[in-house]
Amino acid sequence: MTGATVLLIVLEVLGGWLLADFLSGFLHWVEDRYGRESWPLIGKKVIGPNRQHHSEPLAFTRTDPITRNWSAALASFVLAMPLLLLFGPHLWLVVAFIGGCIANEVHYWAHLPHRAPGIVQALQVAGLCQSRRQHALHHAAPHLSNYCSLTDWLNPWLDRIGFWHFLERLLPNRWLA
After folding, report:
1. pLDDT tens, 50-85?
2. What's the distance, Cα to Cα, between the start and end of the chain in Å?
3. What is the spatial distance between Cα 101 and Cα 69, in angstroms, rounded to a whole number?
4. Three-class secondary structure assignment of the chain
5. What is the pLDDT of residues 80-126, one digit of tens each?
6. Alpha-carbon span 90 to 25, nearest angstrom
7. How far is CA 76 from the centre of its chain?
8. Quick one: which of 168, 155, 160, 78 has its CA closest to 110?
């Protein structure tokens, strides 16, 4: 395996992981800012628990892994299928799909890092999995930043450039939750 091949693999893995971080952060932003518990299908099962998480941050840590992760896995599948049809099978897409599926579990480990496997704790130190310190910034009122919960890398950039505020200026204020 050449150095160029190894570099390409690393870039695809990293790109897929960051894509999952961004897309899960975007969905998190939509849930927080626009989601309604009255929405059919996802209101009570997705939006409600997300809202509860802001008032009671550790509530979701008392659930089982399936309860914590089913909605992220379903959203990942729904997002991955059109990308698979558009681009075909690629390593970055597989990594993005896996990252999206486990985004809530990484979020869980950011709340309870002592329960994270050793490799995840090492990835938290490197910023490849979100750390408790970074995630705590999202839980600071008024909860208007740090929506990406997979890594420590994207939030500082997105918040610095005002990405979420820019999106909100594009959408009518009456839609805000």
Report:
1. 888 888 888 889 999 999 999 999 999 999 999 999
2. 51
3. 7
4. CCHHHHHHHHHHHHHHHHHHHHHHHHHHHHHHHHCCCCCCCCHHHHHHHHHHHHHCCCHHHHCCHHHHHHHHHHHHHHHHHHHHHHHCCCHHHHHHHHHHHHHHHHHHHHHCHHHCCHHHHHHHHHCCCCCHHHHHCCCCCCCCCCCCCCCCCHHHHHHHCCHHHHHHHHCCHHHCC
5. 999 999 999 999 999 999 999 999 999 999 999 999 999 999 999 99
6. 22
7. 10
8. 155
Peptide bond into 40 cis (omega under 30): no
Other beta carbons within 10 angstroms of residue 171's beta carbon come to 12
Could you give the CA distance from residue 50 to residue 71 in angstroms, rounded to a whole number?
11
Q: How far apart are CA 113 and CA 122, in angstroms?
A: 10
The percent of residues in the chain predicted with pLDDT above 90, rounded, is 68
pTM (2 decimals)?
A: 0.91
